[in-house]
Amino acid sequence: MDIDFILQEYDDFVGMRDYERGGEFLELAAEAAGQEGDAHAELIVLNELIGHYRKNDDKEKCLVAIDKTLKAIEEYGSGCELCVGTAYINIGTGYTRFGNPKLALQFFEKAEEIYSVLLNPRDPKWGGLLNNAAAAYEAAGDYAEAKERFERAFRLMSALDKNEDAAVSLVNLAELAELTGSSDMIKSYLDRAYYLLDIVRERGGYYAFVCEKCAPAFLHFGDEKRGEKLLQRAAAIYEENSK
User: Fold this and answer.
1) What is the number of structural domains in the chain?
2) What is the pTM of this model?
3) What does the pLDDT look like over 212-235, one tens digit per residue?
4) Of 77, 121, 127, 138, which residue is 20 to 30 A from 85 by alpha carbon distance?
5) Which domain CATH number covers 81?
6) Residue 76 near residue 50, CB atoms below 8 Å
7) How far is CA 66 from CA 72, 90, 201, in A?
């Protein structure tokens, strides 16, 4: 199975905000991979399905996808350790989203063990692990651990010129600052996040997704002008992609 084609097709659906058809496409791809005996492709598609269901707030299907992924890892995950590490991150993120951050942290720890062996410390995949683990610590009430990981993710993504991801970390820090009584830091975090989003040159579907993800924080903290501008940018990209 051409997994790059599968992922690109799904990204195209997301770029058009056609989430329903995107999910159906992934479900068919996972079924086909299983029928073909392509264990590697099936694991990757199941990973995508966990994220798809999480983003679309479908708890039941997300938990089913997690169970299928764990079974796939048990059956044939030893041949693709890096895929397994990524799967653990998606599983942990799913558990955080649906109210079980302590269980999520167990999977983030497993992912970190794998990444520590297989990845360079500057690999961008670390950013996803750090941000998502931080969110789980925040949900579990361990704000100090959450802040430390959000900051590490920001530093890494900044060093790698991954400005969208660095901006997400800053927005996360702004929201955490509200919880910890550090309100004096919120404006600084948001200013830096907006600047990073402003200087992104290639503005495709992922950029739109990040703008849409960050905008509610600006609106929540009373920065309606920039929050609405981010939403407008995202809408314009989605509209262009749907043509």
Assistant:
1) 2
2) 0.91
3) 999 999 999 999 999 999 999 999
4) 138
5) 1.25.40.10
6) no
7) 10, 8, 35
